[in-house]
Amino acid sequence: MATQDTSPQRQDGTAGAGSKRSLRGFAAMDPQRQREIASLGGRAAHQSGHAHEFTTEEARAAGKKRHAMRSANGAAR
Prior knowledge:
mainly alpha, Stress-induced_KGG_rpt, Stress-induced protein, about 80 residues
């Protein structure tokens, strides 16, 4: 069975405690650059018609459903 590396990540993005893993690709990018790339994907999805946009009725139904779940659990979060 393979074990997973659970060593903590430092703020500079490198793994601590002599880890053999390093951040690569998207994970190694500046968070601002990650947001820019993700934004492009969202725009492309909307332009191609594959992104879902909630109607007012759908949003209202989702809110009611969420409120009912919170009330049933008795916990406000």
